[in-house]
Amino acid sequence: MSIWAIIPVKPLNRAKSRLAQVLSPQDREQLAELMLRHVLGVVRNIPQIQGTLVISRDGRALAIAREFGARTVQESGAPELNNALMRATQVATRWNTEAVLILPADLPLINEDDLNAILDLGHYNQTVVIATDQSEDGTNALFIRPPGVIDYAYGPGSFQRHIELAQEAGADVKVYQSPRMLLDIDLPADLEIYRELAKASEIV
Questions:
Q1: First-residue to last-residue Cα distance in the chain
Q2: CA distances from 172 to 4, 99, 152 (A)
Q3: CA 77 centroid distance within chain
Q4: Which residue ranges in the chain fall short of pLDDT 50?
Q5: Nearest to 108 by CA among 39, 54, 199
Q6: Could you tell me which residues are beta bridge partners of residue 52?
Q7: Is the separation of the CB atoms in 143 and 118 below 8 Å?
Q8: Could you give the CA distance from residue 36 to residue 94 in angstroms, rounded to a whole number?
């Protein structure tokens, strides 16, 4: 079974702009790098995932990805997440990939148990596994078997749109729920939740 993880990464020095009220530009960049390294490290520890493909317009992010043994795609043109993911998926399918796992680079609490559970749910063909965020609006993980069975629809309301696209395609839709997968850090309140959870579990 050939599975590739695809991780899109925004430029690290422009990441987390909505945290500008509570973090300096340098701190925001360091936070973005910390989370990227965490996600890459977790993915690398999953034997069922054959490889990781990182797509970004940020040379530093791509260099970090290569430190973890990931392959990279330099994004060009106007930034648009869905198009970038489609290009990355097309690259992955050249390697006879049977399934792709799309993960954002800002999941600070994700661990191996989460990814193993998602892969187990997506074991059979024509399956889409989705994990959402705290507001049940966005998509914090998207497993697709086979690649291309649905189009990407990231943006506000993507969780429900991905479910609808999968249903329209006749795929078996499964929702993965985990407290760790719910938290992506976009707002100051998210950062406070992360700090409290990290302190409690000695993550930092």
A1: 35
A2: 20, 14, 17
A3: 21
A4: 203-204
A5: 39
A6: 5
A7: yes
A8: 25
Tokens coding 116: 């193993």
Token pair, residue 125, equals: 């063909």
Token duo for residue 74: 């330099």
Q: How many residues does the chain have?
A: 204
pLDDT at position 183, please?
81
How far is 76 from 156, CA to CA, in rounded Å? 23
CA angle 192, 197, 202 (to 5 degrees): 125
Tell me 47's DSSP state: T
| Structure confidence at residue 198 (pLDDT) | 67
pTM here is: 0.91
Cα→Cα distances 162→140, 152, 153, Å: 11, 7, 6
pLDDT at residue 188, rounded to an integer: 79
Structure tokens at 2: 């050939």
- The structural domains of the chain, ordered by start, are 3-201 (3.90.550.10)
**pLDDT for 1:** 55
Task: Using alpha carbons, select from 92, 102, 87 the residue that is nearest to residue 138.
Answer: 102
Peptide bond into 146 cis (omega under 30): yes
